Amino acid sequence: MLTRRRLMTGALVAGAYAGGMGLARRFGRAAAAGAATVLTARPGEASITDGGPTRGIMTYETDTAGPGGLPPVLRMRRGEPFAARLDNRLDEPTTVHWHGLRIANAMDGVPFLTQPYVYPGDGFDYRFTPPDAGTFWYHPHCNTLDQMGRGLAGVLVVEDPADPVFDAEIVLNLRDWRLGGDGQFIAQFRPRDAARAGTFGTVRTANWRRVPQYDAPAGGLVRLRLAATDVTRILQLVVAGAAAEVIALDGNPVATRFPLDRLMIGPGQRVDLCLRMPDTEGAIATLGDVRGTKPADLATFRAVGTSLRRAVSDLPALAANPIAEPDLSAATEIPFVLSASAEERPKDGICGSLGYNFWAINRVPWADDTGDPTAPLAEMKTGRSYVFNVENPTPQIHPLHLHGLAFRPMNSNRQAVRPGFSDTYLILPDEKVQLALVADNPGDWVFHCHIIEHQKTGMTSYLRVA
Ligand code: C2O
Ligand code: CU
User: Fold this and answer.
1) Class of domain 4-159
2) Is the CB of 270 inside a 6 Å radius of any atom of ligand 1?
3) pLDDT for 215-240, tens place per residue?
4) Ligand 1 near 268 CB (within 6 A)
5) Cα–Cα distance between 60 and 70 in angstroms, integer?
C-alpha cells in the first residue's frame, strides 16, 4: 500500500510537470479567509484559432488570471468562507451564478429573482461557504447565450482537506465556439436549431485550446476534472491509451467507481476521472468525444519520467458530501413535463431574450429574462422531501438543472440510473425519471434546461422553498 507521504511527494513532483499546478493548488490559494477575490468580467481578445485573435471575447480575471484569457479555476475549501467581488467591466449587465453550489439564495446570481443586475462599472459582493467538495463551475445568468458563448464560464473546485492526494491534477473546461473561417464570432444561434437540439459551435476546445497536451507522471494517478461548459453540445467521453475510472459525477463521488465508457454528459455537467498514466515515458493518452457523426479528440496527456507504478485501486474513496437523504415514504410528488411550446412567437424581454418561445415546462414558457411577476411553478416546504416526476415527451435530450438543491435521480424508464446526488439530469427523449430531494435550502430556485437556447426560449421556471 502506498503511504500518504509517498503520494504527497508524487503530487509535488507532478506539480512541476504540470506547470506548477500542484504547487499553486496547495500553496497559492489567493485569499486568506475573509479577503475577497476580485473577479473582473471584461471584454477582450483571445487566440482560439490559427486565424489570428478572436475579437469580442468575454472573460473573467482574478489576480491569478488563467492562461490565454481562460477564466481562472476558482479554488475554495469545503466549509470555509469564500468571498468574491464581481467587478463588471463589460458594457452590459451581468451576474455570477455558482453552478451546483448549495449556498444561500441571495448569492445565487439570478437577476430579478435573487439580486439586481450588476450594471457596467458596478460590482457585487458574493460571500458564501461551500458545503460540498467537488468540481463545479461559474457563469453569468444574464444574456447567457451571448455572454457564455463569448467565454464567460469558468471551472470552480471545492477541495476537501480529506481529499486523496493524486500525482497530478488537470482541470479541463470543455466548450465550443461559434466562429467563422476568419476566427470571428458568427450568429450565436439559428431559430430552427434552437427549436431542435440547439445551434452547435464550430470550433471545439479544452481550456480554450484545440486539443491541448498536458504532461503527467508516467504510471501516476491523475485527477482529471472535466466541466461541460458549452451552451449546446452533449458529449460522450472516452479515453484511449490509458485506464480511466469515473470517481465523481456533478461534484458528488460515485458510489462505485466504473471505467469511463462513452459516458454522456450535457451542458452544465461535470465528471472527475482517475486517469492512470501509461508507464512508458512519452506514451500518450487521449480524451475524446465520440458522440455524433464527427468524433473529436479533446485533449492529450503525455507520460513523463520513470513510472510511478500506481494502481487505481491504491486510490482511497472520496468522502461523500453532506446531502440530506430524502424520505421517500413521506415525500410529496410533483409532476414536471418538459415540452415544446405552441407559442412560437417573438416575445419581448430584456437580459438577452432570443425573441422566440419554442419550449416550456408544464406548458408555461418562461424565458427567465423578464421582470414579470411570474409565479413559481411549484412551492415546497422547507425541510420536507419531494419527488419530481419528470417526463420528456420531446425528441430532444435536455440537461435539466436545479439551482441550490441536490437531487437523487431514480427509476428511469430509459436508462440505468447511477445512485448519487446531482444538480443536472440529462433526460432522454421519452424518458420518465424521478428526482428525489429534501427541500432544505429556502429561496426561489431556477429550474431549467442547460441547453441555453432551450432555456432562453421557454424551458425555464423556478421553484419556491419556504
Ligand atoms: Cu449553470 Cu441556471 O445554471
Ligand atoms: Cu433542453
Assistant:
1) mainly beta
2) no
3) 999 999 999 999 999 999 999 999 99
4) yes
5) 8
